Amino acid sequence: MNSPDTYLTIEKTSFAEYKDRGSKFLAFAFPMDTVEVFKQELALLKKVHPKAVHHCFAYRLGWDGNQFRVSDDGEPSGTAGKPILGQIDSKQLTNLGVVVVRYFGGTLLGVPGLIQAYKSASAMALQLVPAVQKSIEVVYELQFDYTQMNEVMTLVKQLGCTLFSQEMQLFCIFRIGVPKARMDSFLSLFKEKHFVEMKKLPG
Asked: Which pairs from 196-199 meet CB under 8 Å and 24+ separation?
């Protein structure tokens, strides 16, 4: 179970196929951290599968999982997006999307059949990829003199921070992600370093 300082997601893309009475349901699960990334993935799948009748999906975003969306893409209301999201939530995952592409096989499956198909395809795709636990990170900008580079770098590594970007000039600017669980250590260590300017960033 993930603690308040961590969240569960997937790191790799996964694919599974489910068939029912001639219809094919191709499920694609992939990691993402913005809605833009999701839109790109969905657009790509629509290009790769132009003859599919439906491209249904669900995604959940954010460490608290508050941002989510579902789409039935023309299927009867509640038969596709919600069952897909249900599978994401049953594994307590966030920062990922699942798109299920349907090729119609000529036989109507009815509401229970559709719910079962979208649920099964999503479940299969998510079973094939391991869930990983990641630290919730608070984003900070550090500004310091180039001569302090080694000392700052050592502390950043020691605290297990993620280095998002660095600008090296006379003054260096680092954008880092500080694990929530290590915030107290980070603040006390860096407040002692009067040569480092710290600024908390949104994100």
From this structure: 196/142, 196/143, 196/144, 196/148, 196/152, 197/142, 197/143, 197/144, 198/140, 198/141, 198/142, 199/140, 199/141, 199/143
Which of 137, 134, 135 lies closest to 175, judged by CA?
Answer: 137
**Residue 35 covered by a domain:** yes
Q: Does residue 1 lie within any of the structural domains?
A: no
Report the CATH number that the domain containing residue 158 is assigned in CATH.
3.30.70.240
Shared domain for 65 and 144, answered yes or no, is no
Per the structure, the count of domains in the chain is 2
- What is the strand order of the sheet 54-61 is part of? 14-20, 23-31, 96-103, 54-61, 67-71
Of 133, 160, 176, the residue that ends a domain is: 133
- pLDDT tens-digit map of 120-173: 999 999 999 999 999 999 999 999 999 999 999 999 999 999 999 999 888 899
Q: What is the pLDDT of residues 20-32, one digit of tens each?
A: 999 999 999 999 9
Q: Is 182 left (phi over 0), alpha (psi -120 to 50) or beta?
A: alpha
